[in-house]
Fold this sequence. Notes:
The protein has 187 residues and is of the alpha+beta class. It has a domain at 2-58 and 88-160: SMI1/KNR4-like (3-Layer(aba) Sandwich), CATH 3.40.1580. It is built from six helices and seven strands; from the N terminus they run H-H-E-H-H-E-E-H-E-E-E-E-H. The strands form two sheets. It has a five-stranded antiparallel beta sheet with strand order 3-4-5-6-7. The chain has a two-stranded antiparallel sheet with strand order 1-2. The two termini are 28 Å apart.
Amino acid sequence: xxxxxxxxxxxxxxxxxxxxxxxxxxxxxxxxxxxxxxxxxxxxxxxxxxxxxxxxxxxxxxxxxxxxxxxxxxxxxxxxxxxxxxxxxxxxxxxxxxxxxxxxxxxxxxxxxxxxxxxxxxxxxxxxxxxxxxxxxxxxxxxxxxxxxxxxxxxxxxxxxxxxxxxxxxxxxxxxxxxxxxxxxxx
Length: 187
C-alpha cells in the first residue's frame, strides 16, 4: 500500500499542489491506536496506512479528493460511523441502508459517503469500497479494496494533464465494477 500512497503523494504535489497543502499530516501509530480504543474498533492495515499518510483534509478545504468528495479526518469518519450506526432500526429501517461495518472515508458534504466496508456487505469482500447515498438505496461497490481504489486514482492522475483536472472528477472503476447493490438486500 505504501508504494501506491507514495505515487499518489507525487501526483498530488505535482498536479494539485494547492490542494495537497490542505491535507493534514498523517496520524502516528499511537494516535490511531487511541482512536481505535475510544471508538472500540480495529482499523484495517490498508486504511491505517492511508491515515498514517494523511489524516484527511482541513475542515476549511472543500475541494474534492476523489469523486466530488472530500477526504475525512479519521476522527470525523469514526464519529460519523458511530452516529449513523446509532440510527439503524430507527431512522434507517431498510436492511443495509447503513451498516455498522462501514467507515466513511470520503464525504461530498451533502450526507453521501464513500465508505470502507470492514465486513463485506453484499459481496463478502472485506475491505471493499462502497458508496452510501443518503437519499437513494444504491449501495454500489466501486472497488474490491482500498489499494485498487488508490490505484484507480493514480491512473487518473498519470493519464490526465494537470490543466484538465477540475473541481469534479471521477475515477474509472476497475473492470467488473461498480457492482450494483441496494439497501433492503440481504448481506
